[in-house]
Design brief:
Layout lengths: L1 E7 L3 E7 L5 E8 L6 H19 L3 E8 L3 E2 L4 E2 L13 H9 L3 E5 H12 L7 E7 L3 E7 L2 E2 L30 H5 L1 H11 L12 H9 L3 H25 L3 E5 L6 H15 L9 E4 L6 H14 L5
Parallel strand pairs: 1-4, 4-7, 8-11, 11-12
Antiparallel strand pairs: 1-2, 2-3, 5-6, 8-9, 9-10
Bound molecules: zinc ion.
Zinc ion binds next to helix 4.
Length: about 300
């Protein structure tokens, strides 16, 4: 038996087949091309799922979806998502269920990644973990007592938009100085470009990955920005430790591929900020599933909803 997995992002949609041990047996990708419309994307996803099913010649027990942005996990609808213009209210769960004749479940992609780490990754055997993804944005999922934490009406808590500095940059969510607007990849790159604008034009338009490379090579300006970003990352992580004291915090996403650069500052902020909780007992670990977490997570979403005994 395989589980179909669909990871819907702003740039691409990944489709995979996951086995009962969390391995990706086969996968395909397509550009999201949101402007071509929701139906067009679902046509492509359906074709990919059917191809994988044929290719592996295995029965598919169901389909799990991880989707960027606010989603209603029980109605199966997509909310107001910047990266998916015109898709608001669209229902990938009902659409794929009708086309594939299978049960389908959906969660926010950060929650899907957290479920994957809890089930098959760094969080195996842990009761509580928070999985943080730092890349283009900051997403986080909370798995407490083995279950995904949900807010009222199934709402996904938007940890990337908790406020670190209310005099900080304006964010598209309406707030100022959100964690994401201070510590995501684009936030780091924009601040570095601004700080180095006058003296050295070689530092313009660099990706966060490139800034990390410069820091490793000892570039002074890059090291200053890494320390600043580490402080912002650290404040957010320390806030989560104070609020939840989880057993484990998993660090994933493209920025966290360079976690070793940020961790000394992050640990220093935690030591300074988390005086009332046993912060030293909270482990910080890199993602074990790395880039595969959202896709594997989409498969876990199905089992988390419909039960492992059928998975
Ligand atoms: Zn925000």
């Amino acid at each position: 038996m395989i589980t179909g997995a669909v990871d819907i992002g702003g740039t691409k949609i990944a489709v995979g087949a996951i086995d009962g041990t969390g391995r990706v047996l086969a996968r395909e990708e397509t550009p999201t091309a949101a402007a071509r419309g929701f139906d067009d994307a679902m046509d492509r996803v359906t074709a990919m799922l059917n191809r994988l099913r044929q290719q592996l010649d295995a029965p598919m027990r169901g389909v799990g979806i991880g989707c960027t942005g606010p989603v209603d996990p029980f109605r199966g609808t997509i909310g107001e998502v910047d990266f998916l213009p015109g898709w608001k209210g669209a229902n990938p769960v009902a659409t794929l269920a009708a086309r594939m004749h299978l049960e389908v479940a959906m969660e926010n992609d950060a929650d899907a990644a957290a479920l994957a780490e809890a089930q098959w990754g760094a969080g195996r055997g842990r009761k509580s973990l928070i999985c943080i993804t730092v890349g283009t944005g900051i997403g986080a999922g909370l798995v407490l007592g083995g279950a995904l934490y949900r807010g009222v009406d199934g709402a996904h808590p938007e940890i990337g938009h908790h406020v670190i500095d209310d005099t900080g940059p304006a964010c598209y969510c309406g707030g100022r100085g959100c964690w994401e607007s201070l510590a995501s990849g684009p936030a780091i790159a924009a601040r570095f470009a601004l700080a180095t604008a006058a003296p050295d034009s070689r530092h313009q338009d660099l990706s966060t990955q490139r800034i990390c490379e410069l820091a490793r090579a000892g570039d002074a300006a890059a090291l200053v920005e890494i320390a600043r970003a580490g402080r912002y990352l650290g404040i957010g992580i320390a806030n989560l430790i104070t609020l939840y004291v989880p057993e484990l915090i998993v660090l994933s996403g493209s920025v966290m591929d360079s976690a070793e650069l940020f961790l000394p500052t992050i640990r220093e902020v935690i030591r300074r900020q988390c005086g009332l909780v046993p912060a030293e007992r909270v482990e910080l670990m890199p993602s074990m599933l790395r880039g595969d977490a959202p896709l594997i997570g989409a498969g876990v979403v199905w089992a988390h909803r419909y039960g492992w005994e059928r998975a």
